[in-house]
Prior knowledge:
Layout: H1 2-17, E1 32-40, E2 47-56, E3 67-83, E4 86-102, E5 110-129, E6 133-135, E7 138-153, E8 158-166, E9 171-178
Antiparallel strand pairs: 1-2, 1-9, 2-3, 3-4, 4-5, 5-6, 5-7, 7-8, 8-9
Amino acid sequence: MKLKLFIAALFAILASLLCTQATYAQFVNGGNYAGAHVGLSGVGSTLTLGLDYERGITNPGEVGPGIIGIGGIFDYFSYSEDFYATTGSWTYIDFGVTGMYHFVLDNKKWDPFLGLVLGYEVASWKWNNSYYGSYSPSAGGFTLGASAGIRYFFDDNWAAQARVGFGFYILAVGVDYKF
């Protein structure tokens, strides 16, 4: 079911890419970009739900030919399993600070980028065993992630995004709004 939802979201984004108009909205200094995404986690093969925000802070030529953006990211995912006489569920909450390098292209519809994430992950799990009872520990720690991605602007404010990475998600697709 979760994989079907992910595939449906991916097809919806790809279909909307085919129905676009001319736009000039590539990532810019001072621009704010906020959005939501759905992805695949590297733990339990489950879907992640997330929010992201980014702001452009440099101009082309100040730090190489591209633009640096800083922001934040939040991801949540949970899954459960049954094995033998035990039922277990895991929940992960990740949040972090992002730094992305955006490549400037002549075609302003496309915004390719590479970046790093310094984050904190809180993991908790619960298990119930018919013989030994329940157990609910939790743990947290810092994590480092990286991603490569691209935005495609439908118009001057709305963009689809796709990312691959590690640390927070393996693959994610979403929608961003520029303001």
